[in-house]
Please model this.
Amino acid sequence: MLSPLAFALAFGAYAQEPHYKDAIQPNIIATDSTGVTGTADAAPSTAAFKDARDEMLQETPKQLTGDVDRDFVKMMIPEHRSILAMAQVVRDYGEDPALRSRAGQIIAREQAELDWMIAWYEAHGTP
Model:
């Protein structure tokens, strides 16, 4: 059993380290200028994932209107298109049957969400 001092020294240092340091950073894909290394570059799925990411970044609005409802939907549309595109990559190139099946479910759900958002956005005109 650790003494209180040993515990504080051991776990106090641990607490100073970010617990997520080994996790995938959310912006690493978008900011990595070197691309994927090894055989991943040759995989058709890599190009498809990069296309989905690039399209989402291109479509994400740079300016907002101040109308929370319209801004929310305007920002969500590219996100849902990207989710749809990534699920299509798994459906088309994935090897795990269960994951491909789940991708099919995601495609159906995301397409319905996307259609609803686009219709809502068009029905509410410009501010």
In short: The two ends are 65 Å apart (CA to CA).
